Q: What sequence folds into this?
C-alpha cells in the first residue's frame, strides 16, 4: 500500500492533512513561468507605443493613468484568479461563460474575443516590430531603402507573415522550447532594459540633446537643431510628469489599458496546469506580471522626464503622430542608445531589447488554441479542431484556424487602407469578453452554487458578500468604463460607424457558427446545451 | 431532455474516471445513466481518495479543520456539513484532538492503518449506495480499480450486487459487444499500488485479448492507462524531485506503450482511458476512437463521455461532458 505522509508533496503546506503517495502528487507549479507569460502579454514594448498616444490627451497624466489602470486591473486579476481556482479548465473565458451564463453567450463572446480578434492582432504585432525593431536596426546599419520598403503595403504584409511564421515556429517547437525561449528572452530583454536605465541615469539632458541631433542627422537625414524644431513645431505643451487632472487622466486610462489589461492571458491554459486551483498562486503570478510592467512603465516615464525632457518626450511623440519635423517612431530604447555614439552598441541594445517583442509573439495564438479545443470538446466546433499532432504535439487544426484567417487579415490590413482602423477594435472586443467573464464571476455563487461552495473561493468574503462577486462587479465596472470611453470619445479612434459595423459582423459570424452547430448537431441527434448541464448529485 | 435525442440501436455508454474519492462525483456517476439515458455506465480507475483531513477538537466544544489551506472553525452542530464538504472533495475526514494528531504524526503505521480503513469504509458505503440505487434497473454498471486504488478494495467491490468489476475480464454487453478492462498502469514516479513494467502490461492485456471472441468492431478496451504518444497521455513534465517543468506547461507523454500497441494491433472500435486528469480529449488510432474524459473531481464536476454505438460495430456519435 502507498505511503501516507503529513503535508503533501509541497513542503510549503503547513495545514494538517495527510496525503497518500498517489499519481499526480507533484510539488507546486513554479510561479515564475506563469508570471513571465503574463509579463509578455502585458507587453512593455506595446506599452511604449501606447505611451506615445499620451500627446493626444495633453492635460492627462500618463504617470497617474498607469497607476490607476494597474489598480483597476487588480480587480480583474482577482476575478480571473478566483474563476481559475474554482473551475481550472482549459478554455478559460469560454468554459466559464458557457457554464455560468449560457452556451451561446459563452461561445459568441469567447470565440470573438479569443479567436477572431486575435487575427487582427497580427498586424499590430507586426507594426510594433517594424517600428521598434526592424526600422531602428536597418537605419543603424544604413539600409535606409530596406527600412523604407517596410512601410510599403508589401512591407507591412511581409512583416505580418514574419510574425505568423515565428509564432507558428514557437508553438511547433512545443511548450518546453517555448518556455525556455521565453525565459531567455525575458532575461536578455531585462539586460537591455538595465543598460538603458544606466545610460539614462548617467547621461544628462544636454548629452541627450546633442545625441538626438547627431543621430537624427546621421540615421534619418535630418537637418539643423531637430531637437529644438521638434519642441517648437509640435506646438505641444505638456504638464509636468506628476501633474494630475482627474478627468483627463481617467480618460488617459483608455490608452494605457490597451497594453496593461492582459495579465490574465494564461488563464485559458489553466486546465493543463496541475495546481491551477491554488488561488493565491494565480493572484501572485498575474499580480507579479502586472507589478513588473507597471513599475517598468513608471521607471521609463521618470527616465524620459529626466534625460529626454518631459516636454520633448511628448513633443516628439506628437511630432511622430502629427507629421514632423521628426517623423520616425521615437522608440525610446533607440533614442536612449543614441547616448552612446557607437552604432554597433546601438544595434546590440535595440536587438537585445527586441527579445521582449519576440517573446511576446507566442501569446498571439497559444491561448486561443485552448479556447478552440474547449469548443471542439463541446462539439460546437468539429472534432478535428482539437486535433493535436501526436509526434510534435502541435495543435495543427487550431493553429491553422488562427493562421489562415490571420494571413487574410494581414493582406487586408496591408493593401486596404481603411481596414487598419478596424484593428483598433482588437482591444475593444477583448474587453467585451472580459466583461462577460466578470459578470459570470459575479453571479457564479448563485448560478453554479455547488461548484462555488466546493471551491476555496467560497472562503473569501467582503463585508459578508462573496469576494468573487465583489471583484467581479468591480472588474465589470472597469470594463464598462473602458467600453464607454472608447466608444464615446473620438480620441481613441474606435467609435466610428465602420468600426462598429465590423465588430458587429465578427459577433454575427460567431453567432452564425453557434446556430449552425446547433442545427447540425440537432440533425445528428445531439443537443449542445445538454452536455453543459449538471448531473444531480443526490 | 437527453443529450442525444434519437436512440441508436446499439448500447449507449457513459464513461467517467478518476473520481478519487469524491462522493459528489460518485453520486453523479450513479445518476448518469438516467441523466444521459445510458445503458451501460463505466467508472474507470482511481476511485479512491488521496488524503485524510483531521477534524480537530478545540477542547471547548468547537472544532476546526483545514480545507484548501483555509482554517474552518465550527460548532458540533455543523460537523455533518463539514464532513460532507471534505468527502465531496475526495478527502477522508476523521475526528481527533491536537494531542492525538501529534501522536499520529509520529506513527506512520497508525496513519497508514487509518488511511486504509477510511478508504475501505467509503468503498463499502459506495457499494451499498450503488446496490440501492441501481436495484430494479436494467443499467449495467462497471468499475475497474486503477493504479491508485489499493487491492484490498477489490473484495468489497466483488461483493456488490450491482457493480461489476471489470479487472482482467472479458465481459459481454448487448448486441455482441465485449468490454475488456484493466486498471493497471505503467511505472509512475509514485510507486503506486497497481503499476508494472510495460512488458508485464503487454502480457496482462494479451491474456485478456486472447479470451475475447467479439470481432474488433465490437470490442471495447477499458484500460485506465492511456496509449502512449497521443493527446490523451500528456502530463506536466516533472523534475527528479517531482517539481513541474516550465510552470507546468511543459508536457510529456506518460502513457503506456503496451496499451498503444494493443490498440494498434487489435483495433477495437472504442478505447476508454483516464489516469491523466489534464489530458481530456479524443484521439484516433487507426479505426479506434480513444477517449480520456479527464477528471476534475476536486471541484465535484464529473467529466465523462457519452458514446453511442451502432449495432453493426461503429461509434455513431460521442460527446465529452462535464456534468
A:
Amino acid at each position: 500500500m502507498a505511503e501516507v505522509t503529513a503535508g503533501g508533496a509541497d513542503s510549503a503546506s503547513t495545514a494538517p492533512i495527510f496525503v497518500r503517495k498517489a499519481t499526480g502528487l507533484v510539488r507546486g507549479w513554479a510561479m515564475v513561468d506563469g508570471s513571465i507569460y503574463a509579463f509578455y502579454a502585458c507587453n512593455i514594448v506595446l506599452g511604449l507605443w501606447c505611451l506615445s498616444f499620451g500627446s493626444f490627451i495633453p492635460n492627462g497624466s500618463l504617470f497617474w493613468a498607469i497607476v490607476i489602470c494597474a489598480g483597476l486591473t487588480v480587480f480583474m486579476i482577482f476575478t480571473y484568479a478566483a474563476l481559475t481556482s474554482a473551475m481550472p479548465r482549459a478554455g478559460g473565458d469560454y468554459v466559464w461563460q458557457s457554464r455560468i451564463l449560457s452556451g451561446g453567450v459563452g461561445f459568441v463572446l469567447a470565440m470573438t474575443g479569443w479567436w477572431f480578434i486575435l487575427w487582427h492582432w497580427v498586424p499590430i504585432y507586426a507594426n510594433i516590430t517594424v517600428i521598434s525593431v526592424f526600422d531602428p536596426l536597418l537605419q543603424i546599419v544604413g539600409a535606409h531603402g530596406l527600412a523604407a520598403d517596410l512601410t510599403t503595403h508589401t512591407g507591412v504584409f511581409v512583416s505580418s507573415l514574419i510574425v505568423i511564421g515565428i509564432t507558428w515556429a514557437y508553438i511547433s517547437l512545443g511548450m518546453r522550447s517555448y518556455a525556455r525561449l521565453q525565459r531567455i528572452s525575458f532575461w536578455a530583454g531585462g539586460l537591455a532594459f538595465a543598460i538603458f536605465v544606466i545610460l539614462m541615469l548617467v547621461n544628462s539632458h544636454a548629452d541627450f540633446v546633442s545625441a538626438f541631433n547627431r543621430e537624427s542627422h546621421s540615421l534619418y537625414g535630418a537637418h539643423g537643431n531637430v531637437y529644438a524644431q521638434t519642441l517648437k513645431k509640435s506646438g505641444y505643451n505638456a504638464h509636468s510628469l506628476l501633474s494630475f487632472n482627474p478627468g483627463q487622466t481617467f480618460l488617459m486610462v483608455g490608452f494605457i489599458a490597451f497594453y496593461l489589461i492582459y495579465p490574465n492571458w494564461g488563464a485559458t491554459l489553466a486546465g493543463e496546469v496541475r495546481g491551477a486551483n491554488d488561488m493565491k498562486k494565480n493572484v501572485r503570478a498575474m499580480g507579479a506580471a502586472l507589478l513588473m510592467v507597471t513599475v517598468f512603465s513608471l521607471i521609463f516615464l521618470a527616465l524620459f522626464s529626466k534625460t529626454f525632457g518631459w516636454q520633448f518626450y511628448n513633443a516628439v511623440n506628437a511630432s511622430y503622430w502629427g507629421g514632423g519635423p521628426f517623423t520616425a517612431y521615437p522608440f525610446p530604447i533607440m533614442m536612449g542608445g543614441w547616448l552612446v555614439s557607437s552604432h554597433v552598441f546601438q544595434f546590440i541594445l535595440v536587438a537585445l531589447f527586441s527579445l521582449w517583442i519576440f517573446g511576446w509573439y507566442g501569446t498571439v495564438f497559444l491561448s486561443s488554441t485552448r479556447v478552440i479545443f474547449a469548443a471542439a470538446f463541446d462539439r460546437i466546433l468539429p472534432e478535428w479542431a482539437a486535433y493535436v499532432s501526436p509526434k510534435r504535439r502541435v495543435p495543427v487544426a487550431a493553429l491553422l484556424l488562427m493562421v489562415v484567417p490571420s494571413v487574410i487579415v494581414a493582406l487586408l490590413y496591408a493593401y486596404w487602407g481603411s481596414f487598419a482602423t478596424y484593428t483598433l477594435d482588437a482591444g475593444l472586443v477583448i474587453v467585451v469578453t472580459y466583461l462577460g467573464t466578470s459578470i459570470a464571476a459575479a453571479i457564479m455563487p448563485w448560478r453554479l452554487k455547488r461548484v462555488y461552495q466546493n471551491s476555496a473561493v467560497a472562503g473569501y468574503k467582503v463585508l459578508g458578500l462573496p469576494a468573487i462577486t465583489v471583484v467581479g462587479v468591480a472588474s465589470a465596472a472597469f470594463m464598462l468604463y473602458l467600453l464607454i470611453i472608447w466608444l464615446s470619445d473620438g480620441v481613441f479612434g474606435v467609435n466610428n460607424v465602420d468600426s462598429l459595423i465590423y465588430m458587429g459582423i465578427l459577433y454575427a459570424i460567431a453567432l452564425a457558427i453557434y446556430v449552425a452547430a446547433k442545427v447540425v448537431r440537432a440533425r445528428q441527434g445531439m443537443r449542445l446545451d445538454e452536455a453543459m448541464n449538471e448531473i444531480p448529485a443526490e | 431532455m437527453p443529450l442525444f435525442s434519437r436512440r441508436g440501436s446499439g448500447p449507449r455508454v457513459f464513461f467517467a474516471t478518476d473520481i478519487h474519492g469524491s462522493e459528489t462525483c460518485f453520486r453523479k456517476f450513479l445518476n448518469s445513466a438516467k441523466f444521459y439515458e445510458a445503458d451501460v455506465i463505466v467508472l474507470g480507475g482511481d476511485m479512491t481518495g488521496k488524503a485524510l483531513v483531521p477534524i480537530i477538537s478545540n477542547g471547548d466544544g468547537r472544532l476546526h479543520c483545514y480545507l484548501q489551506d483555509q482554517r474552518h472553525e465550527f460548532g458540533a452542530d455543523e460537523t455533518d456539513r463539514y464532513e460532507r464538504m471534505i468527502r465531496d472533495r475526495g478527502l477522508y475526514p476523521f475526528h481527533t484532538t491536537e494531542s492525538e494528531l501529534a501522536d499520529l504524526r509520529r506513527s506512520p503505521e497508525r496513519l497508514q492503518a487509518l488511511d486504509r480503513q477510511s478508504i475501505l469504509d467509503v468503498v463499502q458505503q459506495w457499494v451499498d449506495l450503488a446496490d440501492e440505487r441501481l436495484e430494479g434497473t436494467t443499467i449495467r454498471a462497471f468499475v475497474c480499480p486503477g493504479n491508485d486504488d489499493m487491492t484490498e478494495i477489490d473484495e468489497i467491490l466483488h461483493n456488490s450486487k450491482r457493480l461489476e468489476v471489470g479487472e482482467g475480464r472479458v465481459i459481454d454487453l448487448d448486441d455482441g459487444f465485449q468490454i475488456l478492462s484493466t486498471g493497471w498502469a505503467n511505472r509512475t514516479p509514485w510507486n503506486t499500488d497497481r503499476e508494472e513494467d510495460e512488458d508485464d502490461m503487454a502480457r496482462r492485456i494479451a491474456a485478456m485479448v486472447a479470451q475475447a471472441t467479439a470481432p474488433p468492431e465490437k470490442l471495447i478496451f477499458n484500460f485506465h492507462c492511456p496509449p502512449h504518444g497521443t493527446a490523451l497521455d500528456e502530463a506536466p513534465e516533472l523534475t527528479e524531485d517531482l517539481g513541474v517543468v516550465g510552470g507546468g506547461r511543459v508536457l510529456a507523454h506518460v502513457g503506456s506503450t503496451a496499451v498503444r500497441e494493443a490498440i494498434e494491433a487489435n483495433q477495437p472500435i472504442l478505447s476508454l482511458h483516464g489516469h491523466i486528469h489534464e489530458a481530456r480529449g479524443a484521439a484516433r488510432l487507426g479505426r479506434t476512437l480513444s477517449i480520456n474524459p479527464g477528471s476534475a473531481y476536486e471541484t465535484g464536476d464529473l467529466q465523462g463521455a457519452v458514446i453511442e454505438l451502432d449495432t453493426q460495430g461503429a461509434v455513431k456519435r460521442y460527446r465529452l461532458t462535464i456534468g
In short: Residues 108-134 of chain B form the longest helix (27 residues).
